[in-house]
Write a structure and sequence with these properties.
alpha/beta, 2,3-Dihydroxybiphenyl 1,2-Dioxygenase, domain 1, four-stranded mixed beta sheet, 15% helix, globular
């Protein structure tokens, strides 16, 4: 990267943001993101399903056989959702029988109350709310 580019960056913000996650079984992931997290399918690209999280934030579920990357057993990515009532979310997620559910606990250093669990292929999801 050069220090002084020959042209300037285009003005304006991105229209939306999408974090893509790669799956071996996209239909199973879709069911999870729709039923457990309550996300709405915003863009259906066939082998890529893009769900709106909030505002302009989206998550894309990609069929590993078609996407730029392959699913891997190690998932060094965490999807975090900030909500109004973390304890109500904990009760809901617990009733869904998700994998690796932690207890909701306060983190004074981060000023949040949060818990975590895994989606069907092992991506960690954190649900948090700010401490008052």
């Amino acid at each position: 990267m050069t220090d002084t580019p020959a042209i300037q960056r285009p003005e304006g913000e991105a229209q939306l943001t999408i974090t893509f996650l790669y799956y071996r079984d996209v239909p199973k992931a879709q069911a999870f993101y729709e039923k457990v997290l309550g996300l709405t399918l915003a863009i259906d690209q066939g082998w890529s399903k893009i769900y709106k999280i909030a505002g302009t934030g989206h998550v894309g579920l990609v069929d590993e056989t078609r996407g730029a990357h392959r699913a891997a057993d190690t998932k060094p990515v965490q999807l975090c959702l900030r909500v109004d009532d973390v304890d109500a979310w904990h009760a809901w997620v617990k009733s869904c029988g998700v994998a690796n559910l932690t207890e909701a606990k306060d983190s004074p250093s981060l000023k949040i109350r949060a818990f975590m669990f895994d989606d069907p292929e092992g991506y960690q999801i954190e649900i948090q709310t700010p401490l008052a």
